[in-house]
Amino acid sequence: MNPSLFSPEGLAGVIFLILIAVTMIGAIIATCTQRLIRSVTGLAVCFVGVAGLYYFLNSPFVAMMELLIYVGAVCVTIAFAIMLAEPDERRLARKMSGLSGGLAALCGGAVSFALAYAAVTGHWMAPAAQVNDGSLKMIGHSLLTTYSMVFELISIVLLVAIIGSMALARAGRRKN
Amino acid sequence: MLTLSSQLNTYLIIGAILFGFGIFGMVRRPSLIGMLIAVELVLSGASINFMAFNRFLAPDPTVGQIITLFIMAIAAAEAAISLSIVIAVYRNYKSIEVEDLVELKG
Question: Which CATH number does the domain A1-88 belong to among 1.20.120.1200, 1.10.510.10, 3.10.310.10, 3.40.33.10?
Answer without folding.
Answer: 1.20.120.1200
